[in-house]
Amino acid sequence: MLWVVSCKKTDDTTVTPGGTTNPGSTMGTTTTKSAVKDIKTVAFAALSPAVTATIDAVAKTISATVASGTDVTKLVPTITVSDKATVSPATGVAQDFSKAVTYTVTAEDGTTQAYSTTITVEKPVNNGTVYIGNYDGVLYALDALTGAKKWQVQLPNGISSTPTVADGLLYISCLDKKIYALDVTNGEKKWEFLHGKSNDVSAPMVAKGFVYVGGGTKIYALDATTGVKKWEFEGDGIYEWEASPTVVNGIVYGIIRGNTGGKYGMYALDAITGAKKWGPQNDYYLSESSPAVANGIVYAGSELNGFVAVDAVTGTKKWQFGDINGFNISHSSPTISNGIIFYGTLRDKKLYAVDATTGAKKWEFLTGGSIESSPVVSNGVVYIGSGDYKLYAVDAATGAKKWEAMTDISGVDSSPVVVNGLVYVAIDKKVLAFDATTGAKKWEYLTGRGFGNSSPCVVAKDGTVYHAGISGMVQ
To answer: Is-contact 392 434, C-beta < 8 A?
Structure first.
């Protein structure tokens, strides 16, 4: 017998044979599960201002740009996805976006779609950078325009040396008797070299791929990229190389400072081989003043009688300026500008301007304290610090005071640097910037401990490097 079964639709529900039963139907129906698996929005609401990512629906990528200085290693995204879909890693969970993060969206039907992320950190506005280290052993990189800290790195011991920057590396001596080479962008150590001098107030000198640094009774030449020793030269075997070496025309000029009655010596060495050209010249009684060289003459400060000019080729004395009784002892390193030597003195507390050819005095300027600071000249003005808590700006032609800035902190032993209308100097626990024209303070940055004689090294936004006079690089 043939049985006939009929199905009657009692409402508007679609009937699907074999499906699940829907209410109001006489037979089972099936609801298809969603296959949609899109990421709709990604936002970083905790950032200020908040950042919303861009989503490429075709390429399945997520991209965003965050402000300079943002720590992208623990960003927390807020993610919305298609209805009934889920995402892994979950929304609201911190991720390290310094590397690629993949988000997988799972649709209701179990199918998946991966999205890759790229988070870009804006490059900082390049206002230039001030580099300096303190007795805590902390090397600072500060924004030259605002004083805001870019980064800092902790070295194993205190720093009293002045840093030097060349070809993307920063060189600094530490009280652990080592010189370090660091990456200027983040302070990452590239190499270190044990030179054996603990109390180092000088600065390394960089020239043609070599780094020259005094260490104990020896002066070293190192490969600037690797730190490998190229040569070493020992002076008298007793006293240390106090001053920063200076390199001009393939010759290294360095000074040993002994004690009264001991040995004081200036040497000239071949910059490539370390072979002695001349020296020591012991009758000049030189101080830790770093030598400056111009027009075939080497200039340096003296412990007993002021200031000396020496023939760069032979080492013979050209002239000497100062009181033979040692009243104007000079530890200040000289700066040369327009044929004039500028340097400061300890006992008579003066800034001197002396003709570079003859040694004749042009003018003198009296401060209120002993001068350890080395002068720098910019746009016809001499800038120098004094033990009377002041930073001075003096007309280079006449010696007339342009302005003075009272620091109210301590004596100014650090040597100033002038870049793009600002004067940078370290005083006690602070790095300060003053307006070069008026002396008005523009900013200050407070650190944990003092700087001593350590002076700033400034890299301008165009990449030009400016050193303090103590480095032997300012002529």
So the answer is: no
CA angle 297, 201, 211 (to 5 degrees): 65
What DSSP designation does 31 have? P
367-416 residue pLDDT tens: 988 888 889 999 999 999 898 888 999 999 999 999 999 876 777 878 89
Q: What are the Cα distances from residue 88, in Å, to 64, 93, 98, 209, 295?
A: 19, 10, 18, 51, 71
Residue 332 near residue 344 (C-beta atoms within 8 A):
yes
Q: Is residue 338 left, alpha or beta, with left meaning phi > 0 and alpha meaning psi from -120 to 50? A: left
Classify strands 61-66 and 112-121 as parallel, antiparallel or unpaired. parallel
Q: Which domains does the chain have, with CATH numbers?
A: 1-31 (no CATH), 39-121 (2.60.40.2340), 130-152+335-475 (2.130.10.10)
Q: Over the stretch 93-125, which tens digit does the pLDDT of each residue have?
A: 999 999 999 999 999 999 999 999 999 998 777
Residue 354 tokens read as 């002396």
Cα(295)–Cα(186) distance, integer angstroms: 39
Q: Which of 73, 106, 103 is nearest to 91 (CA)?
A: 103
Q: What is the pTM of this model?
A: 0.76
